[in-house]
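Record type: monomer structure entry
Structure origin: computed from sequence
Chain ID: A
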Amino acid sequence: MGLVMVCKYRRTKTPFFVEQAGLNLYSLEELAYFLYHNIYLVDRSFFNEKLCRWIREYAGDPFLADNLESQIASGANFQKLVSLTEEIIGLYRGRELEELKDRLKKFSALKEQEKLKLRADELLNNQNEWAAMEEYRRILRMHQNARLGMAFYADVWNNLGVCYARQFLFDEAARCFDMSCEYRMDEAVEQQAELARKLSKEESGEKEVDYDGVDLQKKLLKWEREYRIKQKA
């Protein structure tokens, strides 16, 4: 039998829209759930006047709104604001809260590029490719940090290529996969680059024989499924 949780907060008629995730939240429990499972998608700017007003006027919790406004005004960091929100709403307790605080602590210790990549990866996994692309490009516009290693930037270029491929921008995808291989040779990524080039020719009307007898679009879907399995692992 699954666990059942009784919600103590009312469901609002006016939702709070989380732009980063393209998601509407209708209760404080949904807010707590979202933050607990998606801390990489938001940053300190998430806690603002708009959120506090929604909590007070629509979700009906002036106590939480007042506490958040006080902490924001005093310059509290992202970790403190998330923890405060979770503790007051009370959806998670004990070990779950400790695990969240541990994740927040580890997240705060990461370099800015690593934080951006985690956010971008989460957006990509949630099929928000355009937002993910912007985060990956932000990383690549930043000064390259040698301490992050070649594999880090190989992954960024590869994942940016995935974003382009999902948008059927196969020329751009191929270039990203090629750049990934410049940082770290990977036979699978080379195959992705070649597949993207074939798909680009198909779209432009330059038909290319597929000697394997397998439709190129089916190959792309198969490769994307394998990529998602690899990401989860």
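Annotation 1: Confidence is low (pLDDT under 50) at residues 208-214.
Annotation 2: The chain has two domains: 16-108, 112-232.
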